[in-house]
Design brief:
52% helix, alpha+beta, 709 residues, globular
């Protein structure tokens, strides 16, 4: 035992130069622990833990592993405190119940172009009509999909629209994606759709840097869509302004199935293209004028201009998490160029992660944060590990008489290796968040990434330079040709057999194991790094949690069941595409089906007839009713009743009855049936006492600032 302890300490000491890489990991761990808690912690807890850990830092010997661990505890406590304060700081009113035929007045904070319309986010909101809440309970921000015939609008305009509004939707099932949590941090208190064309009450000019950039993004997107209407324009808008909402749904699905979806999200790939293009153009431009080249450091001048271009592009794209990470890394790398230091290292990744987590600690739980950092960490770690191999290959190429052939092969090999490494690093996270794996992404990326880098993005950069002069069409049209080629690649690869596959939801323990094991393998340099691989394998092999047998949506209007073969079916008069697809996807199924039974099952009294479905699972007799007139029939001979109408008062006796009022109070329901009994779980209970959960005590305890306060 003593020998093993000595060996471990020796390994840590030998890796002393890599200790700093674990600083953002410790910070992220504190944030992750916060989100795993069953109830909201006190605001002072994070600060108290940080102070206690800071005392340990001063007590531990300088330069020791104990001090490094204590610093990690400080970082973890800081992360915990940051997200706790962030949660309380963004508290804003949320709509308590749906509102119909309500007049919504507000200032446009953001415009999102959709393939079939426009969606706006309004701030400084006023609600007028029957049932409208008082000003102190009016949501700070409201998102509304405008109807056709909407007038020309700009960020900053004061808008009036007749709409139906509802609170942000909760998870479709326990453990599913939580839009209510996302909306909490965006201060989005209601979502809805317009019932009539909106009216611009007052043309406004955006105030402040953020709103000015939002207005510029909306204007650029509008000019792109005017020049390139159709699927190509949506993709161009996504590449230049980050507006993925304008991308055609069929194109989006093809991009996902082919493994090209990352191109639609402004991230490291796009920032690298922009920085590389700007640096190349500036350096070669200066070189064209010998007198200027002798007086100006072309490399550092290009780095400064590329720095500005990266920041501007990130801001214009709305600063999504992958772009924040990439911009921070690019800026650190360009600063290193200015200081004549190494421009590519995991230290840059670590500091970029710290910056992103300080700015938006809630982003840690998002797929964008996890997948973007996983890809870049794996790529840099592989680059470092292959340093000796790359040097020998370069020496052989320089000694060869066919240097051009070696360079072509090296470029193709680097593209292939990059795609393989990034796909392997992000595949498990994609499976966890989206239940989807792209199996042929390598082929699509070998064609799509070079097309994007060498044709599409250069024309995009030229379009942005020409836009102030109204000449962007001359660059957007050829850019659109390239995008059409990219879309064709995505459709073709997505159409191949088994291009993508759905997988059942992974347990949350898998995410922890994949992250810890992957970081251990990438961060360390000595052979003990390989101990992380078995941890990753265990995370991948953990069995998925058992899927529920019965499901009810949070609004109590959609019912579902999972048959003996594991197939999810809809068993209610009303269906909801989003809810049904979420239920099916979590079981590894492409879309839910309408429940139908065989002739023998129908003869046994099973199946659906006039708002009542009967089903049998082992010893349990189940009735799923969605017609108020069939409640009595449902309760007559069923052990379990799920009802989209009020049924509690009319179903007597020793049976389990769950109706729409239960869903309104507790969120979506999931039930597991076996011979021993019934296990019932709700989304609100699964999430615990947190501010973003409706009717939770912690939401009532957090003081909410009224709009405009």
């Amino acid at each position: 035992m003593a020998g093993a302890r000595t060996w471990i300490l020796d390994q840590f000491d030998a890796e002393r130069g890599r200790w700093m890489l674990w600083l953002p990991v410790a910070m992220g761990l504190g944030i992750a622990v916060y989100f795993e808690l069953p109830s909201e912690p006190a605001l002072w807890l994070g600060a108290a833990m940080a102070v206690g850990a800071l005392v340990l830092v001063f007590l531990a010997p300088a330069g020791s592993l104990a001090r490094a661990v204590a610093i990690g505890l400080v970082a973890g406590s800081a992360g915990f405190g940051l997200i706790t304060w962030r949660t309380a700081g963004v508290a804003a009113p949320t709509l308590a119940r749906p509102l119909f035929n309500i007049n919504v007045e507000g200032r446009i904070a953001d415009i999102q172009r959709l393939p079939d319309g426009v969606r706006v986010v309004l701030e400084a909101v006023r609600l007028k009509g029957n049932g409208a809440p008082p000003p102190e309970l009016t949501p700070a921000r409201v998102r509304v999909s405008l109807s056709k015939g909407a007038p020309p609008i700009r960020v900053g305009d004061r808008l009036l629209v007749l709409a139906n509004l509802s609170p942000p939707a909760g998870p479709a099932a326990p453990g599913a994606f939580d839009f209510q949590r996302v909306a909490w941090y965006q201060q989005l208190g209601a979502v809805g759709y317009a019932l009539a064309p909106a009216v611009v009450l007052e043309a406004g000019r955006p105030s402040g840097l953020v709103r000015t950039i939002d207005a510029l993004r909306a204007e650029v997107t509008q000019r792109i869509m005017q020049t390139l209407p159709g699927p190509a324009g949506g993709v161009v808008a996504a590449l230049l302004t980050g507006e993925q909402t304008a991308v055609d749904k069929e194109v989006t699905q093809a991009m996902r199935d082919s493994g090209l979806a990352h191109i639609l999200s402004v991230s490291g790939l796009h920032i690298v293209f922009v920085v590389g293009l700007v640096m190349g153009l500036v350096r070669y431009g200066i070189a064209l004028f010998p007198r200027l080249a002798l007086r100006v450091d072309a490399k550092k001048t290009a780095a400064l201009l590329a720095f500005a271009a990266a920041v501007f592009y990130t801001a214009l794209a709305g600063a999504p998490v992958p772009a924040q990470r990439a911009c921070a890394m690019a800026c650190f790398a360009l600063i290193a160029v200015l200081l004549d230091r190494t421009a590519l290292s995991l230290r840059l990744v670590a500091w970029s992660a710290v910056i992103v987590l300080i700015a938006a600690p809630e982003s840690l739980t998002g797929a964008s944060f996890q997948m973007s950092f996983a890809a870049v960490i794996a790529l840099i770690a592989a680059w470092e590990a292959a340093a000796g191999w790359r040097r020998r290959l370069h020496e052989r190429a320089e000694q060869s008489s066919h240097r051009w052939l070696w360079r072509v092969l090296a470029a193709v090999g680097a593209s292939l290796a990059t795609t393989l490494i990034a796909s392997a690093a992000t595949g498990a996270f994609a499976a966890y968040h989206f239940n989807r794996l792209s199996l042929l992404g390598v082929a699509a990326n070998l064609l799509g990434v070079p097309l994007t880098g060498f044709w599409i993005m250069p024309w995009g950069l030229l379009a942005m330079l020409l836009m102030p002069f109204g000449l962007e069409r001359f660059a957007l049209v050829p850019m659109g040709w390239g995008v059409e080629g990219l879309n064709a690649i995505a459709r073709h690869v997505a159409g191949w057999p088994d291009a993508a596959t759905l997988v059942p939801s992974l347990p949350s323990a898998s995410l922890w194991l994949l992250t810890v094991g992957g970081l251990w393998f990438c961060f360390w340099r000595r052979r003990w790094r390989f101990a992380g691989l078995p941890v990753v394998v265990v995370g991948l092999l953990l069995p998925p949690p058992s899927a529920p047998d019965l499901l009810m949506s949070e609004d109590g209007r959609v019912l579902g069941l999972r048959d003996d073969k594991g197939v999810v079916h809809m068993a209610s008069a009303r269906t909801d595409r989003f809810v049904s697809e979420a239920w099916a996807r979590r079981s590894g199924q492409e879309g839910a089906r309408r429940w139908t039974v065989s002739a023998s099952e129908e003869a046994a009294g099973l199946g659906c007839q006039s708002g009542l479905c009967r089903w049998r699972k082992g010893p349990w007799r189940i009735a799923l009713v969605s017609d108020d007139r069939r409640v009595g029939d449902a309760c007559a001979n069923a052990d379990i009743v799920l009802s989209t109408v009020d049924a509690q008062a009319r179903c007597r006796g020793p049976r389990l009855v769950i109706d729409r009022r239960d869903a309104w109070r507790d969120g979506a329901h999931a039930l597991w049936l076996n011979e021993l009994g019934v296990r019932r779980e709700t989304t609100n209970a699964h999430r615990g006492d947190r501010p973003w959960v409706p009717n939770s005590p912690s939401r009532q305890a957090i003081p909410v600032k009224p709009p405009g306060a």
